[in-house]
Amino acid sequence: MKTEVIKIDINNISQEKINYAAEILKAGGLVAFPTETVYGLGANALQKEAVRKIFAAKGRPSDNPLIVHIADIASLDSLVVEKPPIWEPLAHKFWPGPLTMIFKKSSVIPDEITAGLDTVAIRMPVHPIAMALIKASGLPIAAPSANSSGYPSPTLASHVYEDLNGKIDLIIDGGKADVGLESTVLDITVDPPLILRPGGVTLEQLRTIKSDISLDPALANEPETDFTLTSQANLNTDEFLKHKRRDLQGKFIPKSPGLKYKHYAPKAQMVIVDGELDKIVSTINNLVQDIKNSKKRIGILATEQTKDYYKVDTKGNENIVVMSLGSRDCPEEIAANLFKRFREMDEQKVDVIFAEGISKNGIGLAIMNRMKKAAGFNIIKV
Ligand code: AMP
Ligand code: MG
Predict the structure, then answer these.
(1) Per residue in 324-377, pLDDT tens?
(2) What's the pTM value of the predicted model, to 2 decimals?
(3) What does the domain layout of the chain look like in residue ranges?
(4) What is the distance in A from the centroid of ligand 2 to the CA of 144?
(5) Is the CB of 171 under 6 A from ligand 1?
(6) What per-residue confidence (pLDDT) applies to 232?
(7) Topology of domain 4-218, per CATH?
(8) In 228-250, which positions are buried (b, 16+ CB within 10 angstroms) versus exposed (e)?
(9) Are 283 and 232 contacting, i.e. CB atoms less than 8 angstroms apart?
């Protein structure tokens, strides 16, 4: 299949181009388009053949349900059978925007969308190109992130092209996705509502509407590291380093549930170092020192505050790449850069990435959620 790419200027949206893309959706085709979270891969949510094409193009497991995107509140009524009262203040405050709400689904929603569940995830995006496209199609649009399943989500049209060229009909290049992380998924079929996936709308923001909104306990109990360090001193124990080396050579298989949970991931193996900032830096410096002679290319995902503290001595360092995710004072900037940096590290062909942990406040919760999944839950606590 030939994948066409068209540019649409977010400040001067061509209705002609939007209509062209909408016709492809109406005919059952696949169109990637920008949203404020990440690029989405759109299809007619009411047509199961079109929805199946999404799973095929992405290589997405069929048990992972899709989010349905709408452009006006009136569209909700035919898609759901029940609207728990909390939906209204939430929609009033956060729609259009990066909040997805889970409702009991109506019979017009094909099972392919919901992976057989009796609930459906619905979002109204704020991006003007996404809005215009959904409106022009006159359809609810199923749109997961427009990446190959498992890889980092796309925040630029070029990322979509890298992953899906030849597999979809059209890519709309509308510039960068501002938030850079996916929407917050909130289950409102239960009381109190539960965040199933942290994202662009923060827990703190949601609690301004209902103070007992909580995180799904499964998120709080996510598996963590096989390498937990209780003190800096432990870092130098022979046992740890042996562990670490085996891991970095790909021979060490993390304990249950291991790679099954890996997602959003760069090709390189990633290890998060989390804790006090000075210890993060010294630990990463030690780890780099430890494997420097192994001829592996090493990436360091640092922040503006720390990037100059990685000791890159003058000899034998062509194998070390340091990139900044952004400023710790502006986690929104880190969110916007995260997936792009993962892809840039892959372009640099690094074998291993040491990434700094960041605070879980605000959007930091979503950032750390994606980083942990990308790292297959390899986290060193310092
Ligand atoms: P993506 O659009 O690729 O960012 O992924 C959609 C996310 O929404 C996935 O994490 C799904 O598991 C989640 N999701 C979609 N529908 C439902 C549902 N009915 N119940 C719970 N989670 C859902
Ligand atoms: Mg996705």
Answers:
(1) 999 999 999 999 999 999 999 999 999 999 999 999 999 999 999 999 989 988
(2) 0.91
(3) 4-218, 222-381
(4) 5
(5) no
(6) 39
(7) DHBP synthase (3.90.870)
(8) ebeeeeebeeeeeeeebeebbee
(9) yes
Q: Please, are residues 87 and 98 in contact by the beta-carbon 8 Å criterion? A: no
Superfamily of the domain at 222-381: Threonylcarbamoyl-AMP synthase, C-terminal domain (3.40.50.11030)
d(CA 182, CA 370): 10
Number of Cβ within 10 Å of residue 279's Cβ equals: 18
Taking the centre of ligand 1 as the mean of its atom positions, its distance from the CA of residue 64, in whole angstroms, is 7
Omega prior to 257 cis, within 30 of 0: yes
What DSSP designation does 296 have? -
Q: With a 6 A CB cut-off, is 185 part of the ligand 1 pocket?
A: yes
| The two three-digit tokens of residue 257, written as one number | 């549930």
109 lines ligand 1 (CB under 6 A): no
- Among 102, 114, 153, 181, the mutation site with the greatest number of ligand 1 atoms within 8 A of its Cβ is 102
Contact between 172 and 32 (Cβ < 8 Å): yes
From the CA of 120, give the closest atom in ligand 1.
Answer: 19
Angle between helices 331-347 and 364-374 (to 10 degrees): 20
Binding site membership of 319 for ligand 1 (Cβ less than 6 Å)? no
For residue 60, give the ligand 1 atom closest to its CA.
3
